[in-house]
């Protein structure tokens, strides 16, 4: 059974390399590591936090990295943004070591969560739209790797929280749809987020749907084919920062709420059901 991404990172030695493609401020800022880490994004303004990464501005389809030099390739919530897709995957295959590992997380391009995101943000920069089997096939074929594990990613609809900053200080030139959204109050956006968070989880529990699932995290290795293991996903995800945590270890702040381990704010708590933590 594959380790989680934090275990994969922690296992790397000081002379090994992580490449974080489309990193933004950094995909896993709380990760403990002794390896070398290169975070790449095409917008240098994304490098806003103080972390121990080396950083470089660059394109996913033109990686400034030597052939076969990367031990762990991370593409966390970024493959849906990267174009051209074929050239990006070819570059990832070029830089990954023969025994390298790859972690890729993407949204389900046909989920409720992604549909709302695209509606609110007019696409939001999602230029690639994936189904689960499609992204597995693409990565396995193009990077010559095999899926060894995966788990569902549950949404807190945190992008609606980020929308509130726009409502507080709207840009003077916005598309008509964004101007209409701007008429709503901050509390209305917060109420919509909380309603979606609670409502989708209740429906998933009662009706065995996946309305609260926004995508998947995949673990790939360059090893012989073997059955992939579905791991449990975090059902409890912070409304404010999007951090997931296991229900068993969550700090409870009431019968129906818990406290985020990352930002220390409270949000609705759910007991796990089906294959969740």
Could you describe the 3D structure shown?
The protein has 277 residues and is an alpha/beta fold. It has two domains: 1-108 and 125-153 and 214-231, Vaccinia Virus protein VP39 (Rossmann fold, 3-Layer(aba) Sandwich), CATH 3.40.50; 156-211 and 232-277, no CATH class. Helices cover 29% and strands 25% of the residues. It contains seven helices and 13 strands. The protein has helices at residues 5-11, 85-95, 112-121, 132-143, 158-168, 176-181, 186-207; strands spanning 17-21, 36-41, 54-57, 70-76, 96-107, 146-154, 213-221, 229-230, 236-237, 244-245, 251-254, 257-259, 266-268. The strands form three sheets. It has an eight-stranded mixed β-sheet. A three-stranded antiparallel β-sheet has the order 11-12-13. Helix 2 crosses helix 4 (132-143) and helix 5 (158-168) packs antiparallel against helix 7 (186-207). The model has no long low-confidence stretch (mean pLDDT 89).
Mean pLDDT: 89
Radius of gyration: 19 Å
The N- to C-terminal Cα distance equals 16 Å
Low-pLDDT parts are none
Q: In order across it, which strands form the biggest sheet?
A: 3-2-1-4-5-7-6-8
CATH superfamily of the largest domain: Vaccinia Virus protein VP39
Oligomer description = single chain
Broad structural category: alpha/beta
How is the biggest beta sheet arranged?
8 strands, mixed
The shape, in one word, is globular
CATH class of the largest domain: Alpha Beta
Helix-strand pattern, N to C? Answer: HEEEEHEHHEHHHEEEEEEE
How helical, in percent, are the residues? 25-40%
What fraction strand? 15-25%
